[in-house]
Amino acid sequence: MEKLFSKELHVTVKCRDSEERKANIRVTIEQSPSPVHKRDLLVRLTDNGDPYFLFNLTISEEDFQTLKVQQGLLIDFASFPQKFIELLNLCYSEQESDSPRFLLYLSCQSPVLEGSATFTVVETNAFKHLNHLSLRLAHGSDNEVKEYLAVCLSSLKVGSFTVLIYLLTVTVLLLQTLCEKTKELDKLRLEWTNQTSTLSSCHSQELQLERQKAVENKLQQHTEQLRQELESAHIKASQQLQSRLTELEASCRELTEKKYKNESAIRDLKIKLVGAEEESQRLKQQVLSLRRENSTLDTEVHEKERLVSQLQMRVAVLEQEIKDKDQLMHSTKEMLEATQEQRKSVEENAESKELKIKKLEATVKSLSEELIKANGIIKKLQGEVRGLVRKINVKNTVTVSQEKVLQDTSEKLQSVETALQSAQQQLISKDEQVSKLKEQLEMTVQKLNESREVLKTNENGEEASFACFMMWYNNTEVELDDPFQSLSV
C-alpha cells in the first residue's frame, strides 16, 4: 500500500450520553499502487496514546459511487484522494488557531468508542456548519488490532535500530577525531619541548658569549637589553605554548567526556534493543497464545450456544410442565374442596345415622321381646340376611377403595402444596369417624346376631315376630343404604 497522508490532527470525539472531548488522532490514507488490481483507498484512524484505538474504512470505486450519490460529491474516484487530503491539510493548518474554519468530528452512537463511528469534515461560517464529507468507519477487529500492533512494533524496532546505527557512526567519528586531536596534542607537546630545549641552549650560549663580552664596558648595556628582550620573547613564547597546551587539554577532556557519554548511550541503546527484541518475542508469543485462546473461545462459544439452545428447549418443556402442574393443582384443589364438602355431608349423615342407630338400638330392644314369635320364618330371614351381609361387604369394599383414593389424593396434594397438611389432618379425622361408623355397624350386626340367637331359642310367636322383624328389616335397610351411598360419592 502506498501511503498518501499521515498526520496527527485535532479531532472532536462525541459519544452518546457523554461530553465532547478533544483528541490527537493520526489520520492515515493509503492506496494500492498496482494499476492492474482495484485501486482501493484505505482510511485509518489511530491514537498514539491508545494502541487499541483503530478505525478502518476501505473505499472501492463501487463504494465511492454510492458515497457520491448519497453526499452529492462533484469529483470522481481518481481525484477523490487528493481532494480529501487537501481538506485534511486545511484542518491541519487551522487547528492551532482560536476559531478554525475547518473541523474534524468523530461521533459514535454507543457510550464508548466501539462498533462503527462517523468521521466528518465540517466547515464553519457565520451562518451554519457545512458537512463536506462524512465517512462511516468500522472499529478494528481483534486480528486487525494485532496486525496493527505488530506493524507498530516492527517499525519501532527498525527506528531504534536506525538510531543505534546513527549513534554508533557518530561515536566512531568522535573516536577518530579524539585520536587525531590526541596525536596533535602529543606532536605539539614534542614541538614545545624541542623548541624549549633549543631556546634554552641558544640562550645559554648567548649568555656565555655576552658574559665573555661583558668585560667590555661599552657593550654591557646592549647585552643586558638584548638579554631582557630574549627573556621576554622566551616568556611570551612559553605562555603561548602553555595556553595552547591548556586548550588542547580542555578539548581532550571534552572529547573524552563525549566518548564516555557515547559509550554509555551505546550501552543503553544496546540494552533497549535487547529489551525491544525480548518484548517482540513476548508479544509474538502473546499473539500466538491469544490466537489459541481465540480458537478455544470460538469452540466454547459454539458449545455454549448449543447448550443455551438445549436449555431453552428444556425451559420451554419445564414451563409447559409447570403449567400442567398448575392446572393439576387447580383441579386437585377443586377436588379437595369437593371432598371437603362431601366430608361435611358425611359428617352430617354420620351424626344423623348415630341418632338413627340409637333409635335402632331402642327398636332392637323392643323387638327382642317380639322376636320370640319369629322362629317359623327364620330360614327365609337367613337368606335375606345373607343377601344383606353381601351388600354390606360390597359397600365395605367400596368404602375401602374410596379410602385408598382419598389417601392417594392426600399424598398428591402433600407433594404439590405443603399448605394442605391441615386438610390431610381433617381427612384423617374423617377416616376415624368413618371407622367409628364401621364399628357401630359391626355392633349393629352383632346385635342382629344376638337377636337371631334369641329367635332360635324362642319358637312361639312366629307370625307376630315375623311381622315385627320385617318392619325392622325394612327400616334398617333404608337407613343403612343412605350412609354407604354418601360414602361412595
From TrEMBL:
<dbReference type="GO" id="GO:0005813">
    <property type="term" value="C:centrosome"/>
</dbReference>
<feature type="domain" description="Spindle assembly abnormal protein 6 N-terminal">
    <location>
        <begin position="4"/>
        <end position="137"/>
    </location>
</feature>
<dbReference type="GO" id="GO:0007099">
    <property type="term" value="P:centriole replication"/>
</dbReference>
<dbReference type="InterPro" id="IPR038558">
    <property type="entry name" value="SAS-6_N_sf"/>
</dbReference>
<dbReference type="GO" id="GO:0007283">
    <property type="term" value="P:spermatogenesis"/>
</dbReference>
<feature type="coiled-coil region">
    <location>
        <begin position="209"/>
        <end position="458"/>
    </location>
</feature>
<keyword id="KW-0206">Cytoskeleton</keyword>
<dbReference type="InterPro" id="IPR032396">
    <property type="entry name" value="SAS-6_N"/>
</dbReference>
<keyword id="KW-0131">Cell cycle</keyword>
<keyword id="KW-0175">Coiled coil</keyword>
<dbReference type="Pfam" id="PF16531">
    <property type="entry name" value="SAS-6_N"/>
</dbReference>
<dbReference type="GO" id="GO:0005814">
    <property type="term" value="C:centriole"/>
</dbReference>
<protein>
    <recommendedName>
        <fullName>Spindle assembly abnormal protein 6 N-terminal domain-containing protein</fullName>
    </recommendedName>
</protein>
<keyword id="KW-0963">Cytoplasm</keyword>
